[in-house]
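Sequence design from tokenized structure. All designs in this work follow the same two-part layout: the structure record, then the generated sequence. An example of the structure record is given first.
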């Protein structure tokens, strides 16, 4: 079908890979625990939007550049690491919040838009995600497929769809199970600081990872 081999097998493998915990998973869970359901779901949508971009890059052959240029790979990786560390520092320096309801009522659209954009950037600035798409998707595509980038787009859309469903489920579950903690302003501030440290840790891990 459209140059794709074993599509059901791809779906099963994709679901298992989505369930496997990674940087994006912990990023979404951290957001959900510290800022609630809306922030968690929006961050999940941002991360998955970044995955859509990676799919397009892989389909158009742009991601191949990362495999041939060690300098570019290192530059993107370092930018991603600094950005994660920056997000962590922002959360560490943020003043105590009032209540989640008051925060959302003050600037609901601006804050959620910012979280969405941050989710996109954390995914886009991770070059290993681009390399994953280049390594995983071609295994299910015929080498002599006459359909051009279409197989990449179909498989990428499938992977992103299952990933979005799983990430939104994680966000809602994490936010719901810790909702009573966020009602206490001191605890909420503590969760915010912990989330900041987690983001910084992700940045350090990405920076120290091998090319």
């Amino acid at each position: 079908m459209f140059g794709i081999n074993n599509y059901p097998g791809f779906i099963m493998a994709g679901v298992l890979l989505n369930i496997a915990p990674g940087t994006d998973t912990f990023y979404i869970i951290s957001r959900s625990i510290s800022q609630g359901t809306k922030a968690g779901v929006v961050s999940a949508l941002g991360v998955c939007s970044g995955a859509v971009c990676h799919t397009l890059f892989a389909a158009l052959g742009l991601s191949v550049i990362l495999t041939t240029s060690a300098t570019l790979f290192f530059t993107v990786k370092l930018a991603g690491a600094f950005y994660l560390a920056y997000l962590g520092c922002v959360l560490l320096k943020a003043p105590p919040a009032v209540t989640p309801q008051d925060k959302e009522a003050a600037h609901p659209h601006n804050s959620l838009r910012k979280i969405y954009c941050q989710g996109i950037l954390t995914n886009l600035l991770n070059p290993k995600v681009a390399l994953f798409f280049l390594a995983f998707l071609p295994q299910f595509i015929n080498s002599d497929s006459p359909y051009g980038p279409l197989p990449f787009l179909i498989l990428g859309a499938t992977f992103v769809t299952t990933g979005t469903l799983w990430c939104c489920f994680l966000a809602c579950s994490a936010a719901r199970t810790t909702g009573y903690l966020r009602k206490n302003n001191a605890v909420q501030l503590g969760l915010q600081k912990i989330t900041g440290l987690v983001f910084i840790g992700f940045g350090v891990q990405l920076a120290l990872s091998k090319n």
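Residues 97-109 have pLDDT under 50 and may be disordered. We note this feature because it recurs in several other targets discussed in the main text.
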